[in-house]
Design brief:
Layout: H1 3-9, E1 15-20, H2 24-32, E2 39-45, H3 49-58, H4 71-77, E3 81-83, H5 86-91, E4 97-100, H6 105-117, E5 121-124, H7 127-143, E6 148-150, H8 155-168, E7 172-180, H9 194-197, H10 202-207, H11 212-219, H12 222-235, H13 254-257, E8 272-277, E9 294-299, H14 303-311, E10 322-327, H15 337-346, E11 358-364, E12 373-375, E13 382-388, H16 389-395, E14 404-408, E15 423-424, H17 430-450
Parallel strand pairs: 1-2, 1-4, 2-3, 4-5, 5-6, 7-8
Antiparallel strand pairs: 7-9, 9-10, 11-13, 12-14, 14-15
């Protein structure tokens, strides 16, 4: 509650920030950065520096701010150095905090490891990388004395904040999650069919520069699974054993729906992550939907608190014991400065994995044939199903983040979750090695905990 004051105190010595990836999330952050005291975008690394320059122009930066010839000049003059080299940006002494916003899980892992080696704090916008290997990356960052953080403005960090609020106030968190547009048929959606579900023509989407695989990931359930795995790993909440149920629910019904089944609700258990749908199963819009928002449900610890719920107008279930708070919107990169300030000025993450509880497993969208090459998140072949991590490890499941560009070794039925042994995987690739190490590390920890 004092971040702005801390930022003001750093106006004469602003936080040196390096951004990797000038896509939509990065662009939204860049739009706000000039209006935020106490931080400075020293460098931007993008595979196309020309695209990064165009992004700066589009979000309203003056041309002279993006022409620095080096990181040192950028730090000295208040400009920003554009480069193709993420490695150079991470190593630059003028940068103290790195924002990873590429969306590529393998690249995210590589950049996080480099940041750890260089002693730079990491804000991981790249939730795909976080779910693939975040628990291990966060552990390595802690051991190196730096902060690894989820990105405020994205829904996982906002949910973590709501969970922390409830627990710090003395409430048991019953469930937490977000809203989305969902119907069961969406799991089979492909980049070819996605635009019809959004009421767009392919031509209009192309004119707007919209990526069909990215938007299909939002629709087919993959992104929801990824984000809820990140929340589970950061909060100690756990996934439903059979995956997300996506119950239709408006804000007025959160307290009733988002309580355990044992208490009349639809959550698989106490302390579950879940995603509520903005659509009824027949396609009608849910009244009071939470499509863009986040929620946490909690229980009164006793009769006095239950009476206070009633006295202060909280919406509860019929028992009066369960209630929920929600946030109707999230502002993506426009809010990312909260993470930058919290990490750099307080040394506190805005959510970070501290265990391996949720995993996202590649699951066949249709019958797949031996020899086919998987095309990853948002594609034609697989979607990402949320599973408890122990169940994923027991299955030997193939994480979604590695289900791209790999060839199938056998036929796979529609709806079947894939295994490591189903694909020809390059075991020497860095992302594969790090994921394998994480699995070994946390499998051993689970075994010790079970003894």
């Amino acid at each position: 509650m004092n971040l702005h004051a801390k930022l003001l105190a750093r106006r004469d010595r602003p936080i040196g920030v390096g951004l990797i990836g000038a896509g939509k999330f990065g662009a939204m952050f860049l739009a706000q950065a000039p209006h935020t005291p106490g931080l400075r975008i020293v460098g931007i690394a993008d595979l196309s520096p020309e695209r990064a320059a165009a992004t700066l122009q589009r979000v309203g930066w003056p041309a002279e701010r993006s022409g620095a010839a080096s990181f040192a000049e950028a730090r000295r003059t208040g400009g920003t150095h554009l480069t193709e080299s993420a490695a150079a940006l991470i190593a630059a002494p003028e940068i103290e905090l790195v924002i990873e916003a590429t969306g590529d899980p393998a690249a995210g892992i590589a950049h996080a490891l480099a940041a750890i080696a260089n002693g730079k704090h990491i804000v991981m916008v790249n939730v795909e990388a976080d779910v693939l290997a975040g628990p291990l990356l966060a552990r390595r960052a802690r051991e190196a004395g730096i902060v690894y953080s989820l990105a405020y403005g994205d829904q996982p960090a906002l949910i973590c904040e709501q969970v922390d609020w409830a627990r710090a106030a003395g409430f048991e968190v019953v469930g937490a999650g977000k809203g989305t547009k969902y119907l069961p048929a969406f799991h089979a959606s492909t980049p070819e069919t996605v635009w019809g579900h959004y009421g767009l023509s392919p031509e209009r989407a192309a004119e707007a520069g919209m990526n069909p695989k990215m938007f299909n990931s939002f629709l087919d359930g993959t992104k929801s699974g990824i984000e809820m795995a990140a929340v589970a790993n950061a909060t100690g909440l756990t996934p439903p054993p059979d995956g997300l149920a996506f119950p239709p629910c408006g804000v007025q019904d959160l307290a009733r729906v988002c309580r355990p089944r044992s208490d009349g609700g639809l959550l698989a258990h106490r302390g579950a992550v879940e995603v509520v749908s903005s659509l009824e199963r027949d396609g009608r819009q849910v009244v009071g939907d939470l499509r863009w928002g986040t929620w946490v449900s909690f229980e009164a610890p006793g009769d006095y608190a239950r009476r206070c719920f009633a006295e202060y107008g909280l919406i509860t279930d019929e028992s009066g014991r369960f209630s929920a708070l929600w946030r109707p919107y999230h502002l993506i990169g426009l809010e990312l400065g909260i993470s930058v300030a919290s990490v750099a000025l307080r040394g506190e993450a805005t959510g970070a994995p501290e265990g391996f509880r949720g995993d996202v497993v590649a699951t066949a969208k249709r019958a797949l044939r031996q020899g086919e090459v998987l095309d990853g998140e948002g594609g034609y072949t697989v979607w990402g199903k949320l599973m408890p991590a122990d169940a994923s490890l027991a299955l030997g499941a193939l994480p979604l983040g590695l289900a791209h560009g790999v060839r199938l070794l056998r036929d796979v039925a529609e709806g079947e979750s894939l295994r490591w042994t189903d694909v020809a995987c390059d075991e020497t690739a860095q992302a594969v090695r790090i994921r394998r190490e994480m699995e070994r590390t946390f499998r051993a920890g689970m075994a010790r905990a079970a003894e």
